[in-house]
TrEMBL record:
Protein name per the record: Acetyltransferase (GNAT) family protein
Record-linked SUPFAM superfamilies: Acyl-CoA N-acyltransferases (Nat) (SSF55729)
Single GO MF descriptor: acyltransferase activity, transferring groups other than amino-acyl groups
All copies of domain N-acetyltransferase, residue ranges: 7-160
Coiled-coil region list: none
Phylogenetic classification of the source organism: Bacteria, Bacillati, Bacillota, Bacilli, Bacillales
CDD domains tied to this protein: NAT_SF (cd04301)
Record's keyword terms, sorted: Transferase
Length: 160
């Protein structure tokens, strides 16, 4: 299904809070990610930049980029960031917003974080749709594996 709006990546602003509180995900998807409101209530520092995927100026998606010590769990690269918690609210799924947002990730990161030369992430081995999305936008399986709360995680990398 094609969408009428082009997705755009923006740094989180408090004006997005109410819409992010209303995010809905089916149980089978929620097991692999976190709701924006849960993360926003615990994050207060720049080591965890929050990025919002907007369509027609409305938040439809969300993810975090980490520069914290957690990055070292996924890569030896000191110039890498860790992407976590990507989600698209249920009512906006199937419109291509996740792919559009992820296709903009490299240019967004280069502009906002010029010292970063790699984005890494962990995706659950059972989350085939997420794996396909990440591979379609240029992420590659690094061959690393990590055990997560919900089982084996594949570590993917996007060189910038």
């Amino acid at each position: 299904m094609k969408t009428a709006f082009q997705a755009v990546l923006k740094k989180y602003q408090p004006a997005y809070m109410e819409q992010l509180k209303a995010f809905e995900l089916p149980v089978e998807q929620a097991q692999f990610t976190a709701f924006p409101i849960d993360l926003l209530q615990t994050i207060e520092d720049e080591q965890h930049p929050v990025v919002v995927i907007l369509a027609d100026q409305e938040p439809v998606g969300f993810f975090m980029l980490h520069t914290s010590a957690r990055v070292a769990e996924y890569t030896d690269n000191p110039h890498a960031m860790l992407l976590t918690a990507l989600s698209i609210t249920y009512a906006q799924q199937g419109k291509g917003y996740a792919k559009q947002g992820m296709n903009q990730l490299a240019s967004f990161a280069a502009k906002e974080y010029p010292a970063v030369n790699e984005i890494v992430l962990a995706v659950n081995k059972r989350n085939i749709s997420a794996q396909k999305l990440y591979q379609a936008v240029g992420f590659q399986d690094s061959g690393r594996r990590k055990m997560g709360r919900k089982g084996e995680q594949l570590v993917f990398s996007l060189p910038l």
